[in-house]
Amino acid sequence: MTVIASQCPEITVNVADINPERIALWNHEDLDQLPVYEPGLAELVGQQRGKNLFFTTDVERAIQEADIIFISVNTPTKTYGKGKGQAADLKYIELSARTIAKVATTDKIVVEKSTLPVRTAQALKNILENTGNGVKFEILSNPEFLAEGTAIDDLLNADRVLIGGDNTPSGKAAKEALSSIYEHWLPKERILQTNVWSSELSKLVANAFLAQRVSSINAISALCEKTDANIDEVAKAIGLDSRIGPKFLKSSVGFGGSCFQKDILNLVYIARSYGLTEVADYWEQVIIMNDHQKRRFADHMISSLYNTVSGKKIAFYGWAFKKDTNDTRESAAIYVADALIEERAEITVYDPKVSRAQMLSDLNYLGTRSPEENERYLTVVNNPYEATDKAHAIAVLTEWDEFKSYDYARIFDQMLKPAFIFDGRRLLDKTALKEQGFKVYTIGE
């Protein structure tokens, strides 16, 4: 919405939310207080806020005034009932639709922006069209293909924008209306119009294919470690094949974020619901491989530390699922920490953007142990050198650039010996660290 406001000065953009604390942060004078960290976002918000970009809790007024309404609410994986652990929980989508239906007095274009299972648009249409107040709604699917950390550039220079809708005259007009917004900065040939079902499914499939590449290269990383091959050399060799390409072939401790796992689980659930067992099993294996990579990393740490980490201080560099974001959803660090705390390790974390409250919330969400136990075993510090003081080992779990520039000679001196580094992001110079005296494990070697 901020990019749309910046590129379309004649359009008024209202970001409405029922959470007053969140809206207060979006309106905070100190742009460092914005609830989402994304490079370049604070500057854009500062430029547009109060001009044609507004943050409000007056949801009903925002609905009434809008010509186009984007529904951008969370669609987490269900933790209860039918489809538990796989299907998307659509209660927030439905609540949004019912609010729009109740409030709207003029015709609206309603745009699905959240990642949704196929055929959600039909459910939205059923709710909106049965209000009895004579308002006409057009439902469009406009899935997000932005990567956190590069989201603004991804939008300004998008490979494609996908708009799905009905092929009726009014549906085509709605698709053109939304397309005209993106055409302020993107050539029309990059804006792909489809039917709504193709658009919804394309989002799930795009994330599934990307996650599949990550799990595929991570599967080979385990083989590299057993055969003295180097995963970067293997990735480079196959990435030079023009049919494969080099992207998403970076081996790591596993993928995270809000989309990959959730979307694949959704795809698995949809396939199973249609009786496509082999299709479901195929895609589920991507998740199984990702979980295995996290467990394998934690198990290697434990075995390297003489099969016991009880009472040992382990420093974590990074908690966010990737650099340049404060998003921790499905971060590998959560699951590695959980495995080590289960062995009574004392975890001390430094992450430049993630708060202690968020880290504890992430661990507590797993339900492995009591919140009191998690608080006992998790310490969060604001200085990377404090994290490693008297530590037995360091685990690099997010690829923050600043981790490469630290004084590792100083870090080595203050750690207990032998001093271990477990590089789960292939970020650090293994040769240099070994020369300083560290015992180094780099995933995929």
Strand line-up of the largest beta sheet: 10-9-8-11-12-13
Radius of gyration: 24 Å
Percent range for β-strand residues: 5-15%
Low-confidence stretches: none
- Shape assignment: globular
Question: In angstroms, what separates the terminal alpha carbons?
Answer: 43 Å
Main sheet overview? 6 strands, parallel
Please provide the count of β strands.
13
Query: Helical element count?
Result: 18
Question: Helix- and strand-based class?
Answer: alpha/beta
Helix content: 40-55%
3D structure, described in words:
With about 450 residues, the chain is α/β, with parallel strands linked by helices. It contains 18 helices and 13 strands. The strands form 4 sheets. A 6-stranded parallel sheet has the order 10-9-8-11-12-13, sandwiched between helices. The longest helix has about 30 residues, at about 195-225. The radius of gyration is 24 Å and the shape is globular. The two termini are about 45 Å apart.
